[in-house]
Amino acid sequence: MTTIALVDDHKIFSDSLASLINDFEGFTVCWSAQDGAKAIQLLQQNAQKPDIVFLDIVMPGMSGLDVAKWICDNKKDIKVLALTMEEDDNSVIQMLQYGVRGYLLKNIGAEELRMALEQVVKFGYYYTPIITSNIHKHVEKKNQSGNVPEIKDREKELLNHLCTEMPYAEIAKKMFLSESTVDTYRARLFEKFEVKNRIGLILKAVNMGLVKL
Predict the structure, then answer these.
(1) pTM as predicted
(2) 3-state SS of the chain: helix, strand, coil percent to 5?
(3) φ and ψ at 210, to 5 degrees?
(4) What is the 8-class DSSP label of residue 146?
(5) Residues 64-84: pLDDT tens digits?
(6) What is the CATH T-level fold of the domain 142-207, as seen in this structure?
(7) N or C: which end of the chain has fewer CB atoms below 10 A?
């Protein structure tokens, strides 16, 4: 059973969302919080550690951006999905840089919500047009004058695979490597590109012209 936490300051919306998710086979909501500080407190307690956190961006006090950054720094194994009304470019890019696995607007239907959850469980990410569009916008705004790290052939091969939706286990099979070796190559790429997550790596690699989406 995949456990879900909801962080949204609108309790009626959060309660309705919890009821909907609990009707999906294989998913259950373990807790909800109406502000970022309470969400971090619950995550620190580890009493009911969720597999996925649905996170709103605009909340009183600590914003969803702050919570996403905290999770990125402290609970990397928890997957974050943004679920918000905010669709401005800056919010999307910031959330991607903080490691969110998908960016959903609150006007989505129940079927897309279910599909997003299933895709995140199966592949680790749920790409939507709003993500792809903003990655390209972000790249277009940047110049390509930054220093390009020196990477080896196998690291470049892994980099290309990381820019797809393939999970790490599938990448390992495709490269005829063990998952631990892929983890080592991935760690080297993160270090060389000075990033903390897969999305950050994709953004930098595309910006530098090393890969194309």
Answers:
(1) 0.66
(2) 50, 15, 35
(3) -80, -30
(4) S
(5) 989 999 998 899 889 999 998
(6) Arc Repressor Mutant, subunit A (1.10.10)
(7) N
